[in-house]
Amino acid sequence: MDIYTRFALYISLLVWNASSETLTFLGNSMAKYPKWNAIEKGTLNFQFKTSEKQGVLLYMQGDTNKISLQLSLELGRLKLAISFSLEENIEEELGRDLHDSTWHNVTIERNHRATLFELDGTQRVVTKLHWKESLAITSDLYVGRMERMYGQSGFLGCIKDLKYSEGYTDLVLHSPIYKSRNIVNYCENYCHKNTTKPQCSKGACVNKFKDYSCDCFGTGYEGKYCNKKSPTIFLHANMDFISRVFNSIQIIRSNMVQVRFKTIQKDGILLTIGKANDFFTLELFEGYIRAETNAGGGEVILQNDRPLHDGEWHDVQVSQKGAEFHLIIDSKTDRRFEQKRFSPYKNVVASCHSQDLAYIGGHFNPHTVIGSKSKQGFVGCLQQFYFNEVNVINEVLEALDVLRKNKNRRTNTKIDGTVETRCNVLPTLIKVTKTLPKTKQPTKRTNKRRKVARPTASHKSVETGSQASIKHQSPQAGKRNTTKLKKSSVAWITAGLVLGALVIILVMVFLVHRFRKKYRGTFMAPRDENGMPYYSSVQATYHIQNGIGKRQGRPNVTDV
Hints:
By secondary structure, this protein is mainly beta. The protein is built from 4 helices and 38 strands. It has 4 domains: 17-179, Jelly Rolls (Sandwich); 198-230, Ribbon (Laminin); 232-420, Jelly Rolls (Sandwich); 510-555, no CATH class.
């Protein structure tokens, strides 16, 4: 690299650093920026990402504690709180599950008596002020945490490109006038950082900004580093199912269902919960995953694009964030499938009940399950079954241990039927992938007159996944198959015979017609040697009927 290229790279880095700034806050970090004077008009914009549900993003204060503006995360939602006096406090929330470690764009715009609050393109006017009231902010802008914390946690994550303007000016990128020592001047990613800790052996790494965690779902392993094999249960009858009380599925909440299964049956209910207007049903129908739900905003149906009853492990994840539903299948394979659907009605009132009884693997009366088309229980293996972070498989194993010790003791999880702790499902033979080559038998010159031995049976390999099965085919069957004509050849021969017969019939009809009409027509009178007709004035016309000639008309005959 020559000196000119190095100089150009250095200049580009300087320009990029001047136009963008990213900081990592570790929960107890704080950065102080110049005051944002937005009494009448002004705009503030920045981006953030985090993995925590709680944390203060920014805070400003007036002359007294009566006036303040605070932006924070509460239970994964972004909350804007503005205080104008002790009597008037305005709060507004946007978004759901914002702790997903992805970038989110936030804008706060003050426009005289109105304040606009925007998150990822979703806008909302949060207040209309009285003409005598104003937002008089006098303090600096604190980011990451407040100067004095009163029972609130700081922000853990990254904040990028903090820009704000005053009045009608353009947005300007600001740098902190003070920041604590533990702030990192870039977005920290512990998944890419060289550490002495063991990395995720089977799962995917999740960045926590000051540490990392492992996402083990879909791998068949669990534990902190995905190095412990997940337990498995086996349901082998249609009436084997598990029941437990969970929070109801409602549009005002966020829900997550995750399950890993293996089966060779086309139909079966995996999970059903709720009642007529607030229900969720996840099942296999004709080999396809089908999820139907109504969280209070109308029915939503999700379905994948290929059958999954091949006896191999598959993972399914259905998530709900308000009116949005998301289906993911085989998330960590090259056959990953995703689908998103939205409820027809987003602004609804949730039902009164807060908990429902969930049935896993079936139902005591499958024909009455709302949203089910399979109408029967699931037969197969279940693993890594989570309902809103509740490990269902572990609870089932604990219930089995309790029942072995004391059958009369009640548990939160009820088991109906027989549940085994091993998987007895083998891969099925549903797809022909290749044919093994036939082996030729060696022959010797001295055995020409001897009868040739029958060839060995040919084999066809039927394979699904990593296991294969061999189907035998007898030599006689192979010989019969070679002597039979193809269906297409038989069809062409039949069509030729039919066309030939039609041609012969048409020719015969034509010949008969010509034979019967050969004596019908117009004839000229006979002529003499000079070419003169015997009847000089009239041309005689004869009509032949039944082989007898008959003269029509009365000609004038001249005597000779």
